[in-house]
Amino acid sequence: MTVYFTTSFQNKASKLIEGNLQLQKKLKKQFKIFQQNPYHLGLRLHKLKGKRSEQYAIWIEGNLRALAIKDEETYTFFDLVTHDQY
């Protein structure tokens, strides 16, 4: 499995973690787990429905989710959003 992060994802993550060491650690932890086992229960990986039916989400913390598109064995993370935003 391969994992990519778009530039917009990286920029958004940088802005969110600026001054928030706890969130920075949580993001690193969740993506380390994801690379080892994307189906780990702590990630709550799920395919979205409706207009986002080709996208997947993983739980980061609280209501923060990382969104990705899957192409065979490649996940490309492109956004960080709250649960209410999707």
Helix coverage percent of residues? 25-40%
Please provide the ordered H/E string of secondary-structure elements: EHHEEEE
**Overall SS class:** alpha+beta
Give the overall silhouette.
Answer: globular
Would you count the extended β strands for me? Answer: 5
Spatial arrangement of strands, main beta sheet: 1-5-4-3-2
* Count of alpha/pi helices: 2
- Percent of residues in β-strands: 25-35%
pLDDT averaged over residues: 94
**CATH architectural label:** 2-Layer Sandwich
CATH fold category name: YaeB-like fold
Question: How many separate domains?
Answer: 1
State the distance separating the first and last CA atoms. 25 Å
Summarize the main sheet: 5 strands, mixed
CATH H-level superfamily title: RelE-like
Q: Which regions contain 5 or more consecutive residues with pLDDT less than 50? A: none
Q: What layout of secondary structure does this protein have?
A:
Elements: E1 2-5, H1 7-17, H2 21-36, E2 46-47, E3 55-61, E4 64-71, E5 74-82
Parallel strand pairs: 1-5
Antiparallel strand pairs: 2-3, 3-4, 4-5
Can you give a write-up of this model?
Strands 1-5-4-3-2 form a five-stranded mixed beta sheet. It has one domain (2-85): RelE-like (YaeB-like fold), CATH 3.30.2310.20. The protein contains two helices and five strands. By secondary structure, the protein is α+β, with helices and mostly antiparallel strands. It is globular.
